[in-house]
Design a protein that fits this description.
With 79 residues, the chain is an all-alpha fold. The protein has a domain of 46 residues. The relative contact order is 0.06.
Length: 79
Amino acid sequence: MPERSRKRPTDVNKLAAAVVAEATGDAAPDTDDGKDPAAVALGRRGGLKGGKARAANMTPEQRSEAARKAASARWAKRD
């Protein structure tokens, strides 16, 4: 079974509108999720460089302790 990239609305009216929009080639009416694209891009940019910048400012002992703590947290989830 192929994976779906998006879920269809469960409301009958919204589903009908989505089907019509897809059939006519119009944009889907519910494409706006209320997020500001500029804010999303800014948050992603900060998230991509955050870990590297944090690791660069840590001493080797601090990095080792953080890695040890992360590993123990991962192993604790397995139980």
